[in-house]
Structures
1.
Amino acid sequence: VAVSDVTSLWPLAAVALPALAVPLILASGARPNRREAWTMLAALGTFLVVALLVRSTATHTTGLGSVVGVEFALRADAAGLLFALLASTLWIATSVYSVGYMRGLDEHDQTRYFAAFAASIAATMGVAFAANLLTLFVFYELLTLATYPLVAHSGTAEARAAGRKYLAYTLGGGVLAFAGILLVGVLADTVAFEAGGVAGLATADPTLARAAFGLLVAGFGVKAAVMPLHGWLPAAMVAPTPVSGLLHAVAVVKSGAFAVTRSVLYVFGPETASDLGVASALAVAAAVTMVLAGVVGLRQDSLKRGLAYSTVSQLSYIVLGVALLTPLAMFGALLHVVAHAFMKITLFFVAGVVYVETGEKYVSDLGGVAARLPATMTAFAVAAAGLVGFPLVAGFVSKYHLVLGAATGPDAAFVAAFLLAGLLKLLYFWPVVYAAFHGRRGGDDPASRHAFAPPHLADGGLVAPPTHDDSGVGDSTDGSDAAGEDATGVRHGSGWERRTPRTEASPLVLGPVLFTVGMAVALGVAPTLFPFWELAELAVAEVFG
Amino acid sequence: MTTLAGALTLAPPWAAFLVAAVVVLLVGRRVGQAVAAVLTALTVPWILLAAPGEYLVVAPLGFEQTLYRVDGFTRFVTAVFGFVASVAMVYGAATGLDRRATAYALTYAGASVAAVLAGDWLTLLMAWELMAVTATVLVWHHGGDAVRPAFRYAVYHLVSGVFLSAAVALQYAALGTFDYDAGLLTGPPLVLAVAGVGVNLGFVGLHFWIPDTYPRPHVASSVVLAAFTTKVAVYVLARVAPEGSLVVAWLGGAMVLYGVTQAVLQTEMRRLLSYHIVSQVGYMVVALGVASAAGVAGAFAHLGAHVLYKGLLFVVAGVVVYRTGEESLKRLGGLGRRMPLTFGAFLVAALAITGVPGFSGFVSKGLVTKAVESGAPDLLWWALVAGSVGTALSFAKFGYYAFVRAAPDEVPLRPGTPTMALAMLALAGPSVLFGLSPGLLLGAVPGDPGSFEPYATSELLKAAATTLAGVLAFVALRGALATVPPVDVDRVLHPAAKGLAQSASKAAIAVGETGERGVDRSLVALAPLLGPRDVSTVSTVGTTLLVLAGGLGLALLLAVLA
């Protein structure tokens, strides 16, 4: 297991490449094609750098110097590489998709959008490779700032409210985490990550150590959307869909889950966390979140909000996997970081394709939409099956490792939490699937209706319901759109124009959908063939020895 | 080991089902279904000639898994499945099952065969879940009023999968292996597994998905659905609890009586047959609960006989639906004269399920009853006998209303086809053959029939008495039966489940909002730090970008200096 460390600039390169793209993108604002070329080049470059690091037999580190005696450093260990490889792979797919999406909707301020996106990826790479808590904290906060313009992109009152809420939650969490970091520094004399935990914490005062754990986990738990700290995530769904896809299903939320993983397994370590009794409290919170978010999600008619609650629930799969402190559960948690990313980004991409192609964003308006978008909705069905935990899709592999980890863990009751959460996913997703394939547009029959979500009850977790005058595009059930459909002279049983996969959507948006869903299936059939598997094994071996 | 026996272990027979599914999608419907009928029929010699052992041991998910296990249990069940799948393809061709539905049906049947041939709990679990998905898609494909029942079907079967998942996980946690060995450990694994398998078996209370879904899709899809899910569950019950259990036997006895009672009250043909699945599977569950060598043999003999005659009954009902366009016995009549071949096929199947000497059900049900006689309380034996009387009654009713009595209105008939006749003959053949030479059936099943003599005088007397009692009961109760409306657990169960999901969800949202308000309020203090509320987005965003660029620049500068 002991891989030797070498000093190199490669980890820094992974952070610097997307960061360098930011000024270049801003400077090419007048020439969209050149601007997008910078994004693509940076995405491919970042991926190549991370791929090189994955292939390397040594663990690469870059020192970033010290400020007032505090060391900043990057270290590309197995867990960090897993996260970085995932984010950089999906950045490529999302960049292609973003071009199709933003141009398809003729969105304003595209330059700002692509610049902020690149900045977010730079910060994500920093989170992945941070060698200690302070470095992690800096990049974690930079990620918050970089994603704010993306959340508030549309500039409407709703978007700005969501943006403020997002900042308030995540920066507030940051304050807690920072307090926790200082406390760890005082107790252990170091804030560096060490697989299996820092020795100093095992002998520290238990009450203070518990407090440090609580502060770290609560602080980082905001981005991991552990209830009741999850409120920002459904609100942030006002962002453009590629943002919801890559950042709010993968990069941002997983940097929260990743920071929790680092805190529990690389700062406290399984033994100390177990001795202090703090891990079981985290496990209970995660188990409750898993189930409650699934239940709340049932009532969401807005497709993206439904997906957001599903994300809240799935993130807690990861947090619970970490908190169970068994090798199998940790392995399952790391696999689930990857599996959930490919499945959930597929679902968000699909939601975006539906919005770009039809203007609809509520489940109750999607009856029969599979006639219009056959390949897109098939991808949705496959990814949804994976999230439920059906075999041959990535979700089964990770979820079953988590279930086995829970069965071998301290309390077998957590097995029930995982399985119940899976059942709730079926109750939410299958009605979306059958309505899309077998419903009729605007139909009132049971086949066109979600079994649980009342139509256009968009609010399910916000304090103040957002204003729903979504510039008219969302409310097309009652007449106006149907009339347009008549004008084209095409009417089928579904109420949608029938299209084939060749003509249903731009290849720029359909291509990424097919790539991510293909990966989700490949990871479900032969997960061991992908480097994620080995990286997860390595990380588990490091932590549990 | 001959080379052939070895060669047949290189790939599992379910591969043939998947190849057939692809072929059907690529070539025309007719050719595709013909190829599928041949490929699925190949399963029978394939599994019967393959050398016993465990093959295709792989570890795609990090655990050792056996995809292809050949032993006495898997051989018999797979051969029966292959035969009935092939006939179902012929029948699908005859009744115009479309290409996509045919492909879904083949995938579902393939998943069922994969579940049977699995050599460990993990592979079994995966196939089990895939059966649920593929069957749901098959029913969904029919559209219309099949869509919501198919959703309920998916929920029932995911619940079943949840219990089985938990059982297998606990087994793994205790033993560190997914190997079959001697069934699941007594305690939570066994209880959870029996509950999970119980959903698929149709334990009373968990059974409603059977009459809810099976009557709805295309008639050929019904034949396919009726053949596999419950029978795979019977096979898995034998794996899960090889030692049996009196509790399981009693649960089976309840299925026998409840299923047959509901069946007697039904007027829709395919619904009546669906309730008979509950009842007939009950016989198998009772026998596996007893779990003596004779019990196991009886359960599997009854499984084989049942798949064949119940398949034939669904085929017959489908032919009636196809040719008359009517589902309800209330509007049928006089078909015996107008559809003599179909009537003949019905008689064979009805006599087989009733257990009349000379037909397969007589042999298999006789063995089950015999095993119960020596291994379980008397009351259970009487439950089986009462079930037989009810079965005779309900098929007297089916036959009378559909074929014998004068029709209330003469419905016009679509012409039958030779392919339909072929499907009926193919299923009727073994039902008679196994009745006339019981050794063929009893020699093929796992377990040991022991000294069982199907044609002993006591057996003949018992069969005659129950059949006669059933027919007489029908004559006496015919008028009264028509006045009793059938009511099942769905009236309570489904609204309760939906209400629970919705009220839990509403409550969770309310609790969440309260909690969130608290968090929000504590964060209000932070809000002024983020700048005045009415500032334009553009300038906030501009500031943010500046801060961001500065931060990143600083980080890079530090890196270069260091």
Note: Chain A touches chain B through 88 residues (CB under 8 Å).
2.
Amino acid sequence: VRQTRDTFLHFLSDNLASSSIPVHNVRRDTQKPDSSLYKQNAVNIKFLNVTPEVHIGTTLVEICVIHVDELTALTWVKAVFDLLGAAYYTAKLDYSNPANPVSVGTNIYWDRNINFGPVYNDSYFDYRCNLTLSHKVDS
Amino acid sequence: MANPTAILRRVNRAFSRLNPPSPDKVYKRVVTRTGGDDLTGRPGSVTNTDTLLSPQPIYSRPMREEIGLYRTHTLLAASTGVEPAANWVMTVSPTAMSINELSNKDMLIVTKDVLGNEEVFLIQDYETTGFSGVDILYDVRLKSIKR
């Protein structure tokens, strides 16, 4: 489960970096106090339901594209969709040593129905998408 | 006419006089991460540096009706189940903490008792009170995140 989180975060972050789109993982972490907050002008990733299963487990992830400019948010949604829709899967890696990720020999794949809906806010524009990641439960 | 430095000195003396003889001491904690990967939360090493606030701040746990503009604010009624964003308010001297520290993303507030128990607080927001362009008080809103 942890490998799935790490892999999906890096899949988005590493590929969106070339478009200067920052990726932020929203999580409770006393070692990084500000990580529990959603960030403006970033693609926020929050992991939700975890459903381990003997063969293929699932992890629900919320993707929040937040930008002060609605049209930029829309452009970023397209960039995220292009990435997710390129193959609808990615190889799972073990990031225990972040500098040298190691392939674990299995894949993570997700829904083909990728739907971003707006969540109203006065200060910024917020497009959200819930995606179910399917993966073998390694660790 | 009073000058802000003199007011700040008086404020600091007031902190010492008003503080109850509580066994809890208040510290500011700076979290330093070295190496690792912030994105995934796999840090190489993490160091917490705690510094005792001097003078010690005055703090209280405001009840639901004390938060907001009106004591009878319908949005804050207990029946709504709405949880206040902050559950502690701490009045801090600028001598103890700077505005840069209050806005530091890696800064936490920690209370410790004589038994070694500690409670960790996230800084939610702060208000400044100043005189002649000098800060003399900070009201800091805190959220308990770890006991």
Note: The helical segments of chain B are 4-18, 99-102.
